[in-house]
Amino acid sequence: MNWDPEQVLQDFSHVAELAGVSRADEVYWEQQTAPHKPPVLPREFMGVYIFLFKGRVLKVGKANVRSKGRFSSHHYNPNSSGSNLARTLLRQSQEIEFSGLTEETIKEWMQANTDRVNYFVPEHLGSDLLNLLEAFLICRLKPEFEGYDSQKR
Question: Which of 35, 45, 115, 119 could form a Cys-Cys staple with 52, CB 3.0–4.6 A?
């Protein structure tokens, strides 16, 4: 990883301050290096997650308190939702320099080979701050598999 999650959080605090949020210092982060287990979103917290592979940022996403599955499990199962990292990796496995991924092996491969950085946002700070953090991280880190192809320029 060629970026510092703590420095990114400090920089985000300045952005949040400009947006009128004075308590962004309550946001905290953790790093999970491969191999990792899917994390659990703590009660009364929302989260922004980042998947990395060999230092490359693959995906940035968010989950609020009512979408904890998005944080913990959906991205590891290609059939869990219409858009998830596992499905993207299966479709574009050549781009990540790994072949042989299948629906049966993708979860295990992701846990064994990807790192995660998770930012935890207290629910009382509101979804606007969660959305701002996700947008900031997308702009800052430029994930390779973000959004739909139709949305890209």
Answer: 115
What's the predicted TM-score (pTM) here?
0.91
Partnered with residue 121 across adjacent β-strands are 46
Among 120, 143, 131, CA closest to 15: 131
- CA distances 52 to 22, 90, 116, 124, Å, are 30, 16, 6, 29
Best CA proximity match to 75, nearest among 114, 44, 43: 114
Could you read off the pLDDT of 29-57 as tens digits, one per residue? 999 999 999 999 999 999 999 999 999 99
Task: Record the tokens describing residue 6, joined without a space.
Answer: 């703590």
Angle between helix axes 5-18 and 127-141 (nearest 10 degrees) is 130
Mark the ranges of the chain whose per-residue pLDDT is less than 50: 149-153
Contact 138, 60 (CB under 8 A): yes
